[in-house]
Amino acid sequence: QVQFVESGGGLVQPGGSLKLSCTDTGSIFSVYTMGWYRQTPAKSRSMVATIGRNNNTDYAKSVKGRFTISKDNAKKTMFLQMNNLKPEDTGVYYCMADYLWPLGDSAPWGQGTQVTVSS
User: Fold this and answer.
1) Quick one: DSSP state of residue 32?
2) What pLDDT was estimated at residue 73?
3) What tens digit of pLDDT does each residue of 50-103 get?
4) Which of 1-30 are b and which e, b meaning 16 or more Cβ less than 10 Å from the residue's Cβ?
5) Strand order of the sheet with strand 91-97?
6) Residue 36 has what pLDDT?
7) Strand 77-82's sheet: what is its strand order?
């Protein structure tokens, strides 16, 4: 069963940093490309960053150079280091296997973790 648990969000001032974590309670973590996705009230979920089996990474243009995705396969945990945060980074962050993202709301999303960037 696919299930992920996100943590690490919070309230931070512009320019600050946060590190998000995602734990895979199942067994697909090291097999599939994994991603972080952000949802805001005005928009559906959008891709923030992905990391493949070979640790190849991809980033949304808006976060490139500020965010870093990484993972620890042994601990089945994925991270998103977010630096120089901006108010537009605010949203609920979810992790998901990339191949499930096209399912939209039907994918087995976790509870997500709220990130709020505000002064």
Assistant:
1) S
2) 87
3) 999 899 999 999 999 999 999 998 899 999 999 999 999 999 999 999 998 889
4) ebebebbbbeebeeeeebebbbbbeeebbe
5) 10-12, 113-117, 91-97, 34-40, 43-51, 57-59
6) 97
7) 4-7, 18-24, 77-82, 67-72
